[in-house]
Amino acid sequence: MTKASKLLENAGIPESKIESELVLAYLLEISRGELSVMSINNDTILQNIFEQADEIIRKRCSTRKPLAYLLGQWEFYGILLDIDENVLIPRPETEILVDLILKKFPDKPLLGIDIGTGSGAIAIALLKNRKNWRIIGADISGKALRIARKNAERYGLLDRFFPVECDICAPFDRCDFIVANLPYVSTGQFDKLQPEVRYEPRKALDGGSNGLMFIRNLLKASAKIETNFLAIEFGIGQEIEIAKIIEQNNYKYEIIEDYAKIPRFASIEKRTE
Ligand code: GLN
Question: Please, which residues have CB within 8 angstroms of residue 236's CB and are 6 or more apart in sequence?
Fold first, then answer.
């Protein structure tokens, strides 16, 4: 384990300890938490696991391909999801977006739309915590929706999760809430991101010249949808522009910070008066 962690560290990979633990947990088919309390006494199993771990870690170092894609799975909101290169890897801060919606609405029959659902991470986390909700997972990528569907199926949610292949200005007319983690990286910023990000689907990240193209389109489109609540994620430093876009639509809003106290989310309500 220490060797694995050292290899990763020398290759300039941050979070090297966490990643080496994730590889071992994956191979042992247990959670990372369980790893610390586990003891394996069979040397042959151990040898075998270490060889496989070594192979994954060497591939990780030489290619800089994200670990989530090498393992084909990633955890979000305590839920293990299938992940491949057609979907963005769910980020821990997006869990705040999930919490925001869960805090806002109780478990009564509601219909939500997750725009740009990708792996279905946000929708699945919500549905697992609210037995009476139904969510439409909209995405422009059919390949992403196949993964989202698979994830919903894995957790027995296919009766309440509805994948729909469509653009942001989709044919929806009403819902109780909209949640969206749309692409918000500006085209110029994209080339400066760490090498791992280049393995992720560009169309899930690139939000046009200032990164705000999709969020702007969503807010515009939402005017035609009968809904009162929207929750969105945006990029570092975009809060002033985001506020402007929301105000142009004459909505009320609150900006919410991520774990590092950086403004990253907006909860938006249409004015009822
Ligand atoms: N959080 C991602 C990043 O910083 C971007 C996700 C997105 O564009 N929605 O790489």
Answer: 262, 264
